Amino acid sequence: MISVNFTDKNGESCWADFSSAQAAVEYCGIENILSWEHYDEYEDEYDGQPDWEQEWHDFDP
Q: Which of 5, 18, 35, 36 is least enclosed by beta carbons within 10 angstroms?
């Protein structure tokens, strides 16, 4: 997934999620894209919980 910050038809900045960069460019127009963030659909969208295995590793004395 890719989250895109773009300028809409009214000239306002807004965010939307797309399945690919190509889909974002087709919808927004490349000249209107301000920034974007890629993220792992499983980790960020599934339940929003942190990766507990990594958390425990970080706290291991």
A: 35
Q: Which two tokens mark 2?
A: 């890719």
Q: What tokens appear for 44 in the block?
A: 């960020």
CA distance 2 to 24: 8
Cβ–Cβ under 8 Å, residues 21 and 36: yes
Q: List the chain domain ranges.
A: 2-59
Backbone angles phi, psi at 50, to 5 degrees: -70, 165
As a whole number of angstroms, the distance between CA 56 and CA 17 comes to 31
Note the pLDDT tens digit of each residue in 16-60.
999 888 999 999 999 999 998 877 655 444 445 555 454 444 444
- Position 38 scores a pLDDT of 79
Let me know: does 9 contact 32? Beta carbons within 8 Å. Answer: no
